[in-house]
Write a structure and sequence with these properties.
By secondary structure, the chain is an alpha+beta fold. It folds into three domains: 206 residues, no CATH class; 145 residues, Protein Transport Mog1p, Chain A (3-Layer(aba) Sandwich), CATH 3.40.1000; 52 residues, Membrane-bound Lytic Murein Transglycosylase D, Chain A (Roll). The chain is 43% helix and 22% strand. The protein has a seven-stranded antiparallel sheet with strand order 10-11-12-16-15-14-13, sandwiched between helices. The protein has a four-stranded mixed sheet with strand order 3-4-6-5, sandwiched between helices.
Amino acid sequence: MRYTEWTKIAPVGKFLVIFLSLCSLAGCSTNPATGEQQFTALLPASQEASVGAQEHQKVEKAFGGFISGPVANYVADIGRRVAANTERSDVQYKFYVIDSPDVNAFAIPGGYIYVTRGLLALANTEADVAGVLGHEIAHITARHSAERASQGFLVGLGAAVLGAATGSSGVAQAANVGSDLLIKSYSRGQETQADELGVRYLTRAGYDPYAMASFLKSLDAQSKLDARIAGRDSQMPSYFSTHPVTAERVTQATAVAATYPKANYKVLRENHLVAVKGLIYGDSPDQGFVKNNTFYHPKIGFAFDIPSGYNVENTPSKVLAVSRDNGTVFMFDAVGDKSGRDPLSFLREVWLKNEPVDQPESITVNGMRAATAGFSGTVNGKPATIRVVAVEWQPGQFFRFQMAIPPNSPKQVVDGLKRTTYSLRRLSESEKNSLKPPHIALVPAKPGDTVASLGAQMAVPSFREEQFRVLNGLMGGEPLVTGRMYKIVSN
């Protein structure tokens, strides 16, 4: 390195020396769980409880509520047993089940641990759940959030010093992006460390140390199947991008488990199956759900049919359906309009006022006033015929269908979408009260039963045998065990 190059970065070197001096005086401490020195000055352990309490309110608001009752008690009991074996007695752990079909779990400072309903459905043993909780507890004992926050601050501060030294604001901006990513995701090292500590905690609680690796395999299998169902290639699991499941991570978790002495560890498969029996599978009734190719929303009180062969994504703001065969897409949502317009005026003057609509017309959908129009457009850069329908659900509120139909689509495709539009209807009170969403049921494997025969009982629209295998952890082509109970999705 030439002398002139060294002088350009010397101020940053001085900054690092100052930082290391501060760390040695007050900012760093030895973590009792990891035995490592950490810089966590920006989130002291004494403040974690208050920070966690504030963030917990945000979590509840973002996810729309938690499940109570036996399932929540089951998770909390496992969590308390695992948490009793950690190095941090100063933390009061609290466990919550989020009412979400996503397969997920996460932790925030102060001992707040969250798992989703979807994750509990995927797990096959109590040890699986203990492994997940152990991993999340480990993020707290290892103080990874505090470490991320403090290091993220230093990245930004270091960038400011570097920017001043070089006279470049671009350096600081680039580093601040990195700082933001650091705050939002765990590093590979932190994930591996949480796996190692999680195995330690679940083993101390008497659970099978190999449960961590086995559930990681289930997560990976679920992710790949989700990608196949959606018609895309993906290696990213739904267990958040902050929890990447890789072959290396499974191998490492298995290697850690092998370091523990052989003993009569608990797996408790039957305990878990009993706990999740009857658990809602898929979307919550409060958000609407698909059953037998019909979308029901008991809370609002409507339903409409969905043509077969569509993948459906239900969010709080819309329902999106994409054909698995021909690229046809339709979206359903609701909007308000306080002007008192009729559907045709709403369509012309508000919704499509900047579009060259083709012959808009008034129609009626099951006694409700409506309007429809079509025009040429593009979807993902490809030409398509766009057909829209606005249905007056109640004064000041319209339900909307938006359909993108590829050119030269067969008549049955167009007719299917038309039937969907005209199937929108109000639910009677008796229907709303009688509707039950798909749920987890248990069936015994009888002599002669196969994965294919039990998979055929799955109340899912596609990939029934594959979904049965993943749901029951049968990823290696294992046969059924006669007399053993298996999970299926039932109506």
